[in-house]
Amino acid sequence: MTVAFFPSDMNAPLRTRTRFAPSPTGFIHLGNIRSALYPWAFARSTGGDFILRIEDTDLERSSQAAVDVIIEGMAWLGLDHDEGPFYQMQRMDRYKAVLAEMVASGHVYLCYMSMAELDALRERQTAAKEKPRYDGTWRPAPGKVLPAIPEGVQPVLRFKNPQGGSVVWDDKVKGRIEISNDELDDLVIARPDGTPTYNFCVVVDDMDMDITHVIRGDDHVNNTPRQINIFKALGKEPPVYAHLPTVLNEQGEKMSKRNGAKPVTQYRDEGYLPDAMVNYLARLGWSHGDDEIFSRSQFIEWFNLDHLGKSAAQFDEAKLRWVNAQHIKITADDVLANLVAANLQKRAIATDERLPRICALFKDRCDTTLALADWAAVFYAEAQPLPADIAQHVTDAVKPALALLADKLAICTWDKASIAAVIKEVLTVCGLKMPHLAMPVRVLVVGNTHTPSLDAVLELFNREKVISRLKTA
Question: Which parts of the sequence belong to the Glutamyl/glutaminyl-tRNA synthetase class Ib catalytic domain (predicted)?
Fold first, then answer.
């Protein structure tokens, strides 16, 4: 019998419910978080619910520290969940109750094949060039005589997978997928100690939490036919599935911890904006025409499952920095100032009310808030010009002009227009062109040869500090 599942054939539920279900076995990287971004966006775009579920049944590798990092990374990106986090280890009684129901209904049976027997079976199948798989020795059937129950063997529970026909579903990314039931052996859904396995727990969770759409990585495609069959055995309709292509790193390998992926929170520490990260990640597998830069609200308004890409997306840090730079330009100055102030505080640098204006002046030059903090720091700390810049620009020929500029600045009104007038006057008196004066002033005051308009920069400095630095020439 073919088990077909096409969402269009269902009476669509009134409310969308999506989920993100990470395993807390390490830090969460960009490839992982994209699998949270899309179900979050779909729930928000449809007025539905987004559920966070922690799949922590791998007791040896799971840790609370990893859970904390997952929640911290999602909170930084603004991927707020409506329900959860739910923990699978806290739902064991529920899983065991459903297992008992399935044993009673005949959908699950006890299998006493030992690991040694199973390994020997697979070796024989491999030698015969057959697909290694459980052969149904302990599967009950009308008229079949099962082997004698061996002593000292704790049974596993196996799901009685349908025989014949296919599992068919309409994947929102990959299109129609059909898997023959003959390719699927009877899955172990509870270990000898009674602990349920991944594919079973996922189905019970999705069923109990009324999940309508499962949006996840395509490494789960092979799990889907098994899960659909378990749903059907439980008398439930499966959710809509959308299997996302892999995110590749810059070397073209699958993004993973082993292949050098960074924790999501590291991007925060490196000065990336959460809205820029959401913008960039959204484009790693989804598009809205040719739009490259968009706000979070636009993303939510535009997002749907019809424009998910079918090909693997490759991470490009240079492109990410460019996207971040565009978002820095459009971010409010006071918002940037708060981020910069927090960074400078880590450097033991105190700031003041000038900081939003400093951010406004320099944000067009920066691709991270760390770079912006570096610029802001020169207004609150001592300048550190390079000796080579001093030697090149602060020459004996220009020192009289610098001294005159210091004297004029000491008595002028301290605003941009007045400072500009003083600079122009000194240039005229000394017969200099702007670069001949501006470069040494930048070196002495800012410690850098490249800044925005000199009058705008000087206005943001303390007058006494400017005069003091000019007089060091």
Answer: 17-322
